[in-house]
Amino acid sequence: MADLTADSTIYELLQAKPEATEALFKFGMGCVGCAIARGETIREAAEAHGIPLPELVKALGIKE
């Protein structure tokens, strides 16, 4: 699998890094149980939730 970036989907993130669930919850993102997570990118989710993308990708340990 290619490196995870902000343009990876939430689903791809959780498949590769299940521990990312904790970071998502810290930002108030309930993406784990959300049906949209399969197709929504991390970038789109950050925007939808009003979360600064640089902070989120840093917490997730992925590239912007």
Average pLDDT score: 90
Give helix % range.
40-55%
**Major sheet size, sense and barrel closure:** none
Order of helices and strands: HHHH
Number of H/I helices: 4
Spatial extent as radius of gyration: 10 Å
Spans where pLDDT lies below 50 across 5 or more residues: none
Terminal CA distance reads 17 Å
What is the beta-strand fraction?
Answer: under 5%
The shape is globular
Structural class: mainly alpha
What's the number of extended β-strand segments? 0
Short description:
By secondary structure, the protein is mainly α. 47% of the residues lie in helices and 0% in strands.
Write out key terms for the chains shown.
single chain, 64 residues, mainly alpha, 0% strand, globular
Structure characterization notes:
The structure is a single chain. By secondary structure, the protein is mainly alpha-helical. 47% of the residues lie in helices and 0% in strands. The protein has four helices and no strands. It has helices at 10-16, 20-26, 42-49, 53-60. It is globular and about 25 Å long. The protein starts with 9 loop residues before the first helix and ends with a helix.
